[in-house]
Amino acid sequence: MSLTNTRLSDSIANARTVKIQKTNDTFYDFKLYPFGERGTYIAPELINEITDNLAVSIESHFLNYDYIVSPEPGGHTWGMLAAYKLLKPINILRLSTDLYKDIHLEAKRETAYNENRICFDGFQAGDRVLLVDDVISSGATIRSIAVQMEEMGVKLVGVQAIIAKGEHYRKLEEDLHVPVRILSQV
């Protein structure tokens, strides 16, 4: 199966931009991609196209991993769909809440528009994982996850994302020494 990104390209081109206020003086222009963390309605044809293309890309580029890891709020939907399609297990990195107060492995995640903590549970030293996310902007989320995984003895074998904003994903690949693959770049 070859990669076709017709619906994905259309959804990127038609995404609205909103301003998110991070601090009193700091605003961030945020694209509301339907497939992204603040997207809402996603047409079934777009879901199918993205899921199929993630599976094809993963099968083409990543062979030796034990399971998929995907962070909330945006990546976990696509990690779940890719895991289903590929018949692989998934470990979802949940945003920290009081529900996870007994889970002591957390990593701070700070992006251009927000700050939170990600919970790590169910990992074992020696696990080989593939990180699936929706959007790579600065790479801050992936970097914070990679640092925590290294501390836990978990091997990050690569990153698969739907889209990358700019060239930051290339720096991630260089810094983390793993392949970073995307379906589209904006």
From TrEMBL:
* Keyword Transmembrane set for record: no
Q: Which GO terms describe its molecular function?
A: transferase activity
Where in this chain does the record put each Phosphoribosyltransferase domain? 44-172
Q: Which InterPro entries does this one have?
A: PRTase-like, PRTase_dom, Pur/Pyrimidine_PRTase
Gene Ontology BP, a term: purine ribonucleoside salvage
Keyword list (alphabetical) reads:
Purine salvage, Transferase
Indicate whether Transferase appears among the record's keywords: yes
Record protein name field: Phosphoribosyltransferase domain-containing protein
Name the source organism: Paenibacillus sp. BIHB 4019
